[in-house]
Amino acid sequence: MQLGLVGLGRMGGNMRERLRRAGHEVVGYDPNPDVSDAPGLAEMVGRLNAPRVVWIMVPVQFTEPTIDQLAELLSAGDIVIDGGNSRFTDDGPRAKRLGEHGIGYLDVGVSGGVWGLENGYALMVGGSAADVAKVQPIFDALKPEGEFGFAHAGPVGAGHYAKMVHNGIEYGMMHAYAEGYELLEASEFVTDVPAVVKSWRKGSVVQSWLLDLLDRALDEDPKLAQLRGYADDTGEGRWTVEEAIRLAVPMNVIAASLFARFASRQEDSPAMKAVAALRNQFGGHAVHK
Fold first, then answer.
1. How far is it, in rounded angstroms, from Cα 49 to Cα 269?
2. Which residues contact 158 (CB under 8 A, 6 or more apart)?
3. Edge to edge, what strands does the sheet with 79-82 contain?
4. Is residue 62 within 8 Å of 88, Cβ to Cβ?
5. Half-sphere exposure of 281 toward its Cβ, with a 13 Å CA cutoff?
6. Per-domain boundaries in the chain
7. Over the stretch 15-60, which tens digit does the pLDDT of each residue have?
8. pTM of the full predicted structure?
9. Is 100 exposed, middle or buried (0-12, 13-18, 19+ CB in 10 A)?
10. DSSP sequence for the chain
């Protein structure tokens, strides 16, 4: 197939390479001329044969403007795919807006990070079965080999919803490993924490790719001394917890892991200052000035 790909950063650039290795023709556009195949979005579209398929892999703040531009450049029968970390509630209005021009829309949750080039990407797709079928060769090239790694999750919005939940689970899993690591480091019994983590990689019920990556990080920096304990979030964890509240689904682990990220950004917690003040007031407990 032929594909236009907008956004050639860490994910998009590797996706372009994986698709080309599979024999597909990819015309990429990126504001960085060093990696771009076309000087502009219009030029990229001009190099595609109708019916066109254009996949967007840009930061979420640039997704809407890019779709607005594509709506003016594309024609009826073309398809736009958003593979970024958009909120699922944005997908319906986009599909409706593009549909007024006869342009199809698919939302795709993409997982795989910088390892996707070699390992393949897990893809969660939302949209009509007809549009999915038209793009299936692209999905087949991007996914890992074998039966796993691809799902047509449902109608428009389902792909990004599935990726939202995926990332919420990721938050919880990462924080469980992180808490275990901290307890091992605090213990007077364990003298080789990286060795313990390495021992879990095979034969253990907690083995996973995330654990492999923690082991890799400890190989590079056994005490993680070069890192600051500050963790950003890109929104999916928040949206997952919001959906849990909306649907009354108990989500203790994921919610706690999200709040832990917020705590990581405080050099001196205002809440804990209040706790210290209260302990001092009611019990005369010492405070640290």
1. 57
2. 88, 107, 124, 125, 126
3. 25-29, 2-6, 53-56, 79-82, 104-111, 122-126, 150-154
4. no
5. 6
6. 2-155, 164-271
7. 999 999 999 999 999 999 999 999 999 999 999 999 999 999 999 9
8. 0.92
9. exposed
10. -EEEEE--SHHHHHHHHHHHHTT-EEEEE-SSTTT-SSSSHHHHHHTSPSSPEEEE---HHHHHHHHHHHHHH--TT-EEEE-S---GGGHHHHHHHHHTTT-EEEEEEEE-GGGHHHH--EEEEES-HHHHHHHHHHHHHHSPSSS-SEEEEESTTHHHHHHHHHHHHHHHHHHHHHHHHHHHHH-SS-S-HHHHHHHTTSS-TT--HHHHHHHHHHHH-TT-TTS-S-----SHHHHHHHHHHHHT---HHHHHHHHHHHHHT-SS-HHHHHHHHHHHHHH------
Residue 230 has a CB neighbour count (10 Å cut-off) of: 10
Pairing mode, strands 122-126 and 2-6 = unpaired
Tell me the pairing of strands 122-126 and 79-82: unpaired
Give the active site residues: 163, 170
The CATH class given to the 164-271 domain equals mainly alpha
Confidence tier at 113 by pLDDT (50, 70, 90): confident
Cβ atoms within 10 A of the Cβ of 116, count? Answer: 21
Q: Are the C-beta atoms of 120 and 142 separated by less than 8 Å?
A: yes
Domain boundaries 2-155, corresponding CATH code: 3.40.50.720
Instruction: Note the pLDDT of residue 234.
Output: 83
